[in-house]
């Protein structure tokens, strides 16, 4: 019986090969790849990241080779490694595919046993070419071809699936080889340009010139496509030789940029404004006197790459000692904080989630953390004097500065992100760090195949890649904080016992100081206290603190923030929801750290109203801090107080709710959730409710059996009347009463005065929250006059005796509490005084101007800077408000829209009536808002009322943060304040001064 014939593999269709383009079958037919002999070849093609792209490139390559195509075709059938390398590289890189088509015989570089050349072999390859060409014009295309050929070989070994016994190239090998390739290329460019420039200048010997590699090239961790950062140094300072070295350096940069990659010398002293080439002595002098922290950080990766090797070595030896003492510089901490902010702000919000390099949880997070730890600890530990990120992570782990597991995990995440970066750059040999759009499944699927991501049973390769990206980004973000702080916790906590590698106390203090903590010893004490408690609480704190400390380090006062956090945690030791909320609600924890490290005002309130912390979370309608019915809260406050017959307990209940509302409003303000007008309106609403609650309680306690002998209304004056209260504002009020039927006026007035005095006294009593100062000094006759008057008494006084300042004060009068009908009649009564027919007299206007001049001269505190006092200073609140009120006095009788107590509403009415230019209106409005915001910020930061902005320094930076100033730059905040108020003062002089 005959044996059955061996079954040949079945020829797959284009669909099974992953080919989707309509011309795919025609292309296969053109190549002759449609026979049973090509089955294995076609399956190799199908494994290319983009099989269609690979097939198109093969067709073009066959046309470019012409009669030589047969050699490649035959080799592909028999050389399995060649198939894997060729299809992988042209399916991954359109640019290298184009290079192959332009240089078709370069395919032979991928055949047989292929290995990466050594550094010496690379140097010889480029030296041979550079010796055979003369002039940059002739050298550029030849050097470019050689460079692309070497990229082709590296990429083929990097992206090809494992074939035979060839191992997958580790990321570190790829990055080091790219750096070695860059060194050889730079040396070739330098050789060509030196020879050409010296021949042109008829110079027999070139000046000594060393090319120092910086950045990724200096660290031997270069990308496929990167700018290569360099610094040029010479040793001959004569004018002619320095000029010659500069010409050579410039020509070398142009040739290298044309042939290989962009060469960037912006990291040199003074950046692009500084000379391209300096002597070694000049470099040393610059770094000793002028260099900033980021420049020393950049020098961490400095390495001689080309040119005079001895000069390059001396350059590194001269500057490295300065690098390792940079952390002792006075500006180190603020410089580091500024660098951290700048990294985040460089990335547009719309692409932050796609940015592999600068996005949250990206490559820069890893690199920045590692470099900072090197700078902090490298002064005393030479094992950290390494340039590459991967090597530095290993050294930090070995030295106990970060956990060994954290170092390993961070390294794995870093290498994964760099792998994706390499694949993205290979596609078109363009510098990019952006992942494809989230909805671009095809591009993401290509990336997954190029990165050798495999299905896992639950997800296809695309799903696995997306899940892995989320996991790695989250891990980097989490480890970024742990790298800084977990070893600190281990150095103070019980977990340090038994560990072989634990950071010393001195190292821990040094690291905390570098991260912005001015009292590192106290900080370590707080950390020890927070983590020393046994059981669940201590374990949760161990998990939370690395991230919390990281967030605190970005606040104006990390030391105070950590102390506040410890106090709050001690206070909440028995409340399980507290740590659970911080653990499970990342937004709550981050917002709380910002508040604790910025404000002295809010933490004290949170100690007594900790439930407000739960409002830091986001709700369905946005942040819960803002999802509040302010009027409803006011009604609840009054109702809560009304449940108590004892006025002391009633007012205590009202103050408790006020404390909670103050904590909520101030928290929302600090977190940028409320604008300044909303803050003022909500503070006013809360103040009014407390006044009403206190008045009701005192009336109930003092009312005789027959009921209260009088009705009482509280008239708000000043900022209270204008609904413009700040955190440090008193409540300016006047009390008006009206006897009940059958009650003598003297009895009613006396009883009402008792009630008013008790309200003032009990609200002003110091307690667990800021006292509520009720100020009645704006009443007729001021402090000398009776505290309470009847409506008729007020009317008689204002009709006969009202002085100019009293008329002006009435412009802000508004009923706020008590009997609202009586308050309304009071307002109608004073309208004829504050808005008189025909306007106020010229004499009254002059009197107001005279009073203002006296206030300016006498009321400003001794030693205060008149330019930066938010209330009485130049262009401050008093200037704006007096100017607005003068216009009201002059024109309100004929412009009803001016009948308002709000400064901003009055400004709008002034503008609508065209009493002054719209541009002047904007300047006054901007100054009022700026000064109000600054004044509120001062209270939030200092914890007590003050009107004076501090001078440059830490406190001013905190005020800037509290005022919502971008980056918390105190200098820019102050400059803006001075500019805005200066312009407003010019308007005040013109309008108020006549």
From TrEMBL:
Q: What class of enzyme is it?
A: transferase
By its UniProt entry, which SUPFAM superfamilies does this protein fall under? Nucleotidyltransferase, Nucleotidyltransferase substrate binding subunit/domain
Cofactor annotation: Mg(2+)
Q: Which UniProt keywords apply?
A: ATP-binding, Magnesium, Multifunctional enzyme, Nucleotide-binding, Nucleotidyltransferase, Transferase
Mention any one GO cellular component term assigned to this protein in its UniProt record: cytosol
User: Could you say which EC number(s) this protein's record lists?
Assistant: 2.7.7.89, 2.7.7.42
The record's section on CDD domains has: NT_GlnE_GlnD_like
Adenylyl removase: where is this region? 1-488
Molecular function GO terms recorded = [glutamate-ammonia-ligase] adenylyltransferase activity; [glutamine synthetase]-adenylyl-L-tyrosine phosphorylase activity; ATP binding; magnesium ion binding
The cross-references to InterPro entries, in alphabetical order and at most eight, read: GlnE (IPR023057), GlnE_rpt_dom (IPR005190), NT_sf (IPR043519), PII_UdlTrfase/GS_AdlTrfase (IPR013546)
* Coiled-coil residue spans: none
Give the HAMAP family listed for this entry. GlnE
Q: What does this protein do?
A: Involved in the regulation of glutamine synthetase GlnA, a key enzyme in the process to assimilate ammonia. When cellular nitrogen levels are high, the C-terminal adenylyl transferase (AT) inactivates GlnA by covalent transfer of an adenylyl group from ATP to specific tyrosine residue of GlnA, thus reducing its activity. Conversely, when nitrogen levels are low, the N-terminal adenylyl removase (AR) activates GlnA by removing the adenylyl group by phosphorolysis, increasing its activity.
Q: Which NCBIfam families match?
A: PRK14109.1
What family is this? Answer: Belongs to the GlnE family.
**What protein is this chain from?**
Bifunctional glutamine synthetase adenylyltransferase/adenylyl-removing enzyme
Q: Which organism is it from?
A: Mycolicibacterium obuense
Taxonomic lineage is: Bacteria, Bacillati, Actinomycetota, Actinomycetes, Mycobacteriales
